[in-house]
Write a structure and sequence with these properties.
Chains: A mainly alpha (505), B alpha/beta (182), C mainly alpha (305), D mainly alpha (607)
Shape of chain A: globular
Largest sheet of chain A: 2 strands, antiparallel
Number of helices of chain B: 7
Strand order of the largest sheet of chain A: 1-2
Oligomer: heterotetramer
Strand content of chain B: 5-15%
Largest sheet of chain B: 5 strands, parallel
Helix content of chain A: over 70%
Order of helices and strands of chain B: HEHEEHEHEHHH
Shape of chain B: globular
Radius of gyration of chain A: 22 Å
Number of strands of chain A: 2
Structural class of chain A: mainly alpha
Number of domains of chain B: 1
Helix content of chain B: 40-55%
Distance between the termini of chain A: 40 Å
Strand content of chain A: under 5%
Amino acid sequence: MVVSPVHFIAVPLLAAFLMPILAKVNKNLLRIVPGIVLTYLGYVSVVLMNRVATEGTIIEVLAGWSAPWGINLVYTPFTGFLATLMIAMSFLIWLYSFKFKKVDDEPALKYFILQLMLTTGSVGLVLTGDIFNFFVFMEIIALSSYALTAFYRDRNGAEAAFKYLLIGAFASTLFLLAIVLLYSQVGTLNMAEISVRMHDVPTSMKVSILVLFLVGIGIEAEMFPLNGWAPDAYSQAPSPVGVAFAALVVKAGVYGLVRITYTLFGIEGSGIGPFLIIMGGITLVMAEITALKQTSLKRMLAYSSIGQMGFVLIAFGIGTHEAVFGAIFLMFNHAIIKGLLFMSGSYLVYNTPNKEIKYLSGYGMKMPVISLFFSLGALAIVGLPPFAGFWSKLYILLAAADGALYGLIALILVVSIIEIVYYFRVVGRLYFGKPAEGSIMRKPTVGGMIAMSILAIAILVVGFYPDIITGYIDAAASSILNTDEYIKNALGAVNELTPVENIIQ
Amino acid sequence: MDTNDKGVRKIVDMITGFARSNSLFMLAYGTGCGDIEIPPAMTSRYDWERFGYRKMATPRQADVLLISGYLATKTLKRVIRSYEQMQEPKYVVAFGSCTINGGMYWDSYNTIKMLDHYIPVDVYINGCMPRPEAVMSGLFDLQEQIKKGEANGAQKYRENLEWYRGNQKKVIKNWVMPEYNW
Amino acid sequence: MEDILKLLGGAAATMLLAFVVGATYGGLVRKIIARTQNRVGPPWYQNFVDISKLYMKDTAVHHGVMQHIGPAFAITASVTVLMFVPVLREGGWFPWFENLNFKGDIIFLIYMMVFGSLGMALGIGQTGNPNASIGVSRGLSMMVGYEIPFVLSLVSVMVQTHTTSITGLMEWQTQNGWLMFEAPFAFITMLLAILGMFHYAPFDIAHAPSEIASGPPSEFGGKYLAMMMTSGSIFAFAKLVFLVDVFMNGASNLVMLVVKTLLLYMVPVLYGAVSPRYRTEQAIRYLWGWPVFFGIIALIYSIYI
Amino acid sequence: MGGAILAYLAKRITPMLSSIVSFLAISSAAVVFFTMTSSTDVVTVSVRNFTLQFGLNAYSWVFAAMVMGISALVSLYNIAYMSGKDRLGYFNLNFTLAIMSMMGIVFANDWISFFIFWEIMTWSSFLIVVYNGIDEGKIGTKYMIFSAVGGYAMLMAIVITNSQIDSFLIADLINAYPTFGHGMQAMIGILFLIGFSVKAAVMPLHVWAPRAYSDSPMSFTAIFSGLLSKMGIFGMAIMFISVFSKASIGDTFIYSQVIAWLGGVTAVMATFYAVIQKDAKRLLAYSSIAQLGYIVTGLAIGTKLSVMSALFLAVIHALYKGILFMAVGAVERQAGSTNLEQLGALIRKMPWTFFSALIAAIALAGIPPLGGFVGKWMLYESMITSTNPSHLFLVILIFLSSTAAFLYVYRLLFGLFLGQEEPEWDHVKEAPAPMVIPMVLMALTLILLGYAPGLLFEPIANGMEFLGFENVGWQMSSLSNIWGDTVDMQYVWGSVVTLFVLGAIFITIKNRKSTRYVTTKDIHTSGEIPEAHENLTYAVDFYKPFERAIEPVMRKTMDFYYNHFGNGLESLFGFVRKIYTGNGQTYAMYVVIFLVILLLIGEQIFK
């Protein structure tokens, strides 16, 4: 059968809605179906990646409607890379949480459905070329995330979910507002066209739209000070969901930020770059400082991933090809490493009272493999060679140095020292001291082990031989930087149906 | 050369006797009142360093064990240990009548009457107390003996060690003297 | 082969000379101290008698191999120092006194001088006698004290004369006059330093007589003690000759040598004969006080002259 | 060559390996190295848009040979030392990783691979430091922090360099350095120096070292202090000799002065601390810091003689400190303690260990005729003959520290091997052969290098010529300074050995029959008879008088200030984190405020 980006949206949605029915047929289908779906999607994405590599951007127009009214999916190397990454991650999450709940209790149903929805939302958000669908997918993500955050029906979960809901509502409102304003100005929802017509929007209006966008999407991208929801959500949600947040939601948010700033408004000239750098810097510093003072492992990881996002923002703010390359590389690394950290960390703190670090003494002897995974992740995420994290950090620093931003380099390095402090406090604790009496170790499931070892191997391989993915990342970076080509491709596909000028009048 | 040749032997003996007799390093074992007579003998009034006498602090380096005043059974043990730690040739000079026959402690239950039964004494100096002149004359006698090669108390001690040990063990009830001494 | 024989002969002759003179000095010192205490004192040859007597003692006990070879360390160090120090000035050579004078230099001698004491200290350490160990601890601590002014003075001299070999120093002095006057501050520093170096009072805390029973050599008797005394007298002589070479341009014949060394030797002896005893930390503080001050002045003087 | 090393690196990681495997790996690597040293081929690995180069040059050959030879011996020792410990795989993995990463550093031709291996070395050694599970004073974290500061300073310098000259090659930096602006030269120089000084434990950055050295297993500490710290020296030499000497500005002179004095102060203070230690490991750790101080000073002075002495000392120090740490490790393994105040009189039980420790100690104290003296002599001569007055005052500092070094050397030997024999240690036996053989071999090497230091001068001279000195002269066995004054080691050996042998023979044959051995209980105790259990050895607070004398300078340790600094930061962070109140309304308020602010000043930000 012919593969097309549509499957990314259609198949999982369909599956998600079918699953309740399937669950009636046989409980086990429930946990198998997502696997099948995700495997298929993985296959699709790989095929598409290759096609993109050969033929360039793929445009898929849905439902016969043409742009600007129709929905269209734009599969550039960048979006494709992200989509592939997301699908791979959600497949691993599925593996990890295969035995997540016992078959016969009903939350499992919700859980898998919501996970699929989450995947759909993020992949769609990445792929869509249309600002309104962008919003729709954002909502899908948000809704499923709320539900997943409150998955354990306890007080903390509810509280976290409420916070998330509160802030998320802001996000949606502002974003919608921005879209409305934008439409009133340019009269189209297709991003490509918007970016074509952006220059004749009055500056003040442009700025306010930009601000609304920034705030709206910045909440999803965990930009300081809009990231208050994140730590609670991360730490209260079930651990696979934490992975999902780190790997899918945040990435989607960052993608949105980048897409809007780069494509719609254009990074160069406008003060967006410095703004992103400053905000990223503040986010980085605040998040790492806060992470240093955390006593709960999951919250620590949450803040650390916020910090990483700040790092990504900095890189995107620098905006040179090297920087964007580093940024995308970092997004990839963060996805896999933080995934590994969340997975292994949640096993470590599974039985410790309110997930405190101080109870972890000596787990290195009792859970050697898990501790090894965690240490590996820690080494990798603070950017120590020869692990994956090092290369992205190196490239970003190189870009910063080329921009003569020495202060920025110093800042980043100081912050990474803080990072080292709190990560190695945990690693050190894992490897010395005696385990507290009666601390029960949770045996990891087979799926979990497989998922974690896949991630670990990925970290090592990328660390030792980064060229394995740098090609894709390079393509992605150039594609995101090259706005005109994006427009040409997107509209080029449109023009066959309706030329731009008769849209205008 | 042939060390059995009379003349050679004579010369060697003369040299050794001269050397040994003219540098006497003393370990003064002063218990009771006797030791008070040593400082005047050392210091500027009598100055026995003229004759090469010298006070040494450790038995390893001393030639002469200078026992002054009475010995109790308790102190006898220390004396024996010190004496056995000294290195041959070694001499014992005991002065004060207490060391000769118990003196004023002749009927005390734990004073050593006949020091000669426990360690070999080369020179006795009597008097209570002998004045420094007496001490020095005693030491001159010792020098003479050394020159003549008659001061061989250590040899005596080595030869009939059992007898000495027996006497010592008789008076010293709790005999814990380690065997490595001798 | 020929010069090997010459070397050995010279070495033997020098050792003999050093031993004789050193031992005689020892006797004289005892005599002088006795005089200052209004006594007659032993005859000048007393040290020879003592040493020969000690060699003739029959038994000798040791507590292990290190104590057994400790005195060997000591005599090695002192004789090596002697070998590398020019006994007589060039031109006035007795043909066989030119030992190894061109083969070493001052830094080497400074290090060689501590070789003996460290080897001795190892030997002493094995005796397990607490008094001996206390003596070693005090002695080494005080060595740190007096090495600093000693080195300061020598360094300033070396800087001033731009040579580090003793023969070089002596050549320099034959041209420019005695360093004693050319480098006065260095000389003062050295005088203060040798007070500590010769271990006479007030710096005799190391083997504090009748406080810690005769100090480090407590367990050494018989031949061990004799060897230590021999090496001690040789070492004293070697040090004196070294200082005379450095500051008084050596000596052209034995008489001058004896005079100069004796004059230099009298400084610590007479100072010690009338002094009480410093505690270790007091000694160190003293030696790091004025001597170092003068030494720094000497260094500045030698740099900017 | 580098390829071989990388292959080993990769091979290490796969199996959880036992000590023997690691020994085999290392020794085979050593064999490979020593057999094909002539090959100067360059292995290049290309990553995206730059290439990593590995190659060997005359300078790095010195260090490579040092690392390979010593670590092969130490890993042999390691087999016996670690036998019976748990988590051997974990330990040996990191052990081997550390050694291989050192090889990587030495072989690296470009800064990126240099940095990569540098960091591998850091974290693998960190994992070994926490292996024993001792967490007094958070030493692991401290070590990691300091190494990170150093490493990141280096990384910053590297990326800045790359932004200046579009290349990572070390050679290119050396060539391009003079063309930089003054500020740039200063920044790069200082950053690199910070990076290297941390590993070389120069004074203000030394805090991690003592505990890290003493808390990790001895078989690794021999490597840690002997070789791993030398990597800092390795880099520093490149900076000082090749880079700064070519600099167009005068302030490199200032760097060298500052670093030289820092080295001097390090030497003195560390020596003082070493003197007052009670634990053998801690003592050796401080003494390593002091010795590194000499080396740094020698490098910073930068004359031919001083650099040669520094490199010579670097190798020699690796040898004797390796021996000493191994000996202490052997004592620890056999007697179960390294407390200088309790142990004693092991000489009759562990003679071979004592012998090698004695040789190493003599070399450490710099006493002729062993190798240590050669290095020290060259150092002093280079300072005395230097034209710069400040070096003449520095030489006093160095002299002070090396004289005080006698104190702790004697303390070490006395505390472990001498003193009174006690029933408590009767069970102690000599260490097994795999532990003794490396020590003795290295001791013999020391003796050989004392007799013929030229064996070591040759490669060092080649290395220095590679680094940019002209015709570095050296003789096989005689030393000479620029004033033409010489010390002839052969004559020194002749006189010392002859006299010592003569003396020993004489003292042994002199009335041999009556000379006898008595136990150490038979000592002069004023006639008292010591019981078997009472220990008369004077070992507690051995240098109390000296302590009292130097007490004024010892009041505050650097560590103290660092801890206060750290606590201050922690509390500051604690205040800052209050921003995250965990209250939904607050977060919402943040959002609103942020939005409003942006709307207000948006015009100014986004043109």
